[in-house]
Amino acid sequence: MKKLLVCLVVATGFLASAEVYGQDTTTAGQDLKKAVHKTGKAIGKTAKKVGDKTAELASKGKAALVDKVYKDKSGPDGQTIYINNKSAYYWIDEKGHHIAITKSQLKDKDN
Q1: For the segment 48-87, what is each residue's pLDDT rounded down to a tens digit?
Q2: Confidence check: pLDDT of 109 > 90
Q3: CA-closest candidate to residue 56, choices 27, 95, 82
């Protein structure tokens, strides 16, 4: 009888400790704060991508209207080359920046 009682107490102790470790240690407020932080980061990344693409398209649109397009040559990675009013060659990167390029860096366009 004494062995049965000891086994029962030990088993109850194991079950009680398993329940304590199985509980969630964060509060609802902490979970909400983490979710808001993750969502904010995702929105920030997406907004940056949209802003970069908008700047690229606006810059390319302006360059196509104001500057001349060099039809026979391309940039190092196949970019469209523009020539401004000072006869400087440049291409536009994915963030809308004008990247200057020398005449020796130009490549023939593949037709």
Answers
A1: 999 999 999 999 999 999 999 999 999 988 899 999 999 9
A2: no
A3: 95
Question: Cα 40 vs. chain centroid, distance in angstroms?
Answer: 13
Placement of tokens 């020539």 in the chain: 83
Spatial distance between the Cα atoms of 78 and 97, rounded to a whole number of angstroms: 16
- How buried is 73 (Cβ within 10 angstroms: 0-12 exposed, 13-18 middle, 19+ buried)? middle
pLDDT at 27 over 90: no
- 28-35: which pairs have CB atoms within 8 A and are 24 or more residues apart? none
Question: Rounded distance, CA 74 to CA 90, Å?
Answer: 10
| Rounded distance between C-alpha atoms, residue 91 and residue 98, angstroms | 6
Q: Are 82 and 89 in contact (CB under 8 A)?
A: yes
The string of DSSP codes covering 57-110 is: HHHHHHHHHHSEEEEEEE-TTSPEEEE-TT--EEEE-TTS-EEEE-GGG-EEPP
